[in-house]
């Protein structure tokens, strides 16, 4: 399976960071391509996008000031297939990307992603008190995977804090 391309440019409002691509994403080349993944619905219903985008439109998020990447590039069926070594290497690569691209917000799509990145154990949802890198805000959101047992409305409510922050701080293009 092949990794998929990041969608990153400098100074984005938000970069969404997942665990790694799914098998379906690897096959199609699109982020969050698994039909059971609720990422696109969450973005729209939280107010981050003006409509529900499809995985095939993932590159269009750049026009809204949003980027996409993962902590590990190797596609797997599930995140539990990722090794400790892959996380260590992926963490260093992610830090380099974030330092280079300098987004305003790094949104970690899953607590486990942020745990691997920050090396912290106890993590609340939402904006973190202290970010790992000084030039941006760290935001931890629930995974958009259909396997997550949290109710979709609760997940959307957490993500909805991002557009509120962007509006309040007059950052980015609002939908």
TrEMBL record:
Residues of the Uracil-DNA glycosylase-like domain: 12-151
UniProt EC number: 3.2.2.-
Chain segments annotated as transmembrane: none
Gene Ontology terms, MF aspect: hydrolase activity, acting on glycosyl bonds
Keyword vocabulary terms for this entry: DNA damage, DNA repair, Glycosidase, Hydrolase
InterPro entries on file: MUG/TDG, Uracil-DNA_glycosylase-like, Uracil-DNA_glycosylase-like_sf
SUPFAM superfamilies: Uracil-DNA glycosylase-like (SSF52141)
Name of this chain's protein: TDG/mug DNA glycosylase family protein
Protein species of origin: Cytobacillus purgationiresistens
